[in-house]
Write a structure and sequence with these properties.
Elements: H1 2-7, H2 10-19, H3 23-38, H4 49-69, H5 81-87, H6 93-102
Length: about 110
């Protein structure tokens, strides 16, 4: 357990760098420490505990980032305008083009 006490400041820093500040970051860091403790038998070189723990923290933070990006459309308060347009029977091409111009995806000619 002394290895966790010595190295436990680094996982929150690594997670904060990848996820930004917040309670979710602290949760991910704690999950990394727990995962490392539960799988100590897989650590081949005990002297490499620190880098191994940081790798676990970074992997969990990246998985959290991916989950953030994969927000289902149902979770949004209102559907994105393009989804609304394309779900219509036959969207008006001018209206669709107007959305892109409004969003500055396409510059008006």
């Amino acid at each position: 357990m002394s290895a966790v006490r010595v190295g436990s400041g680094a996982p929150p820093c690594r997670c904060r760098r990848l996820l930004g500040p917040g309670p979710e970051t602290e949760d991910v860091a704690q999950d990394a420490i727990l995962a490392a403790c539960l799988s100590l038998e897989r650590l081949r070189e005990p002297a490499r505990f620190g880098p191994w723990l940081l790798a676990i923290a970074a992997n969990l933070a990246r998985m959290t980032q991916r989950r953030r990006r994969l927000l289902p459309l149902e979770a949004l308060d209102e559907p994105p305008i393009l989804v609304t347009l394309w779900s219509a029977a036959s969207p008006d091409p001018a209206e669709v083009a107007g959305v892109f111009v409004d969003r500055k995806v396409l510059a008006p000619r």
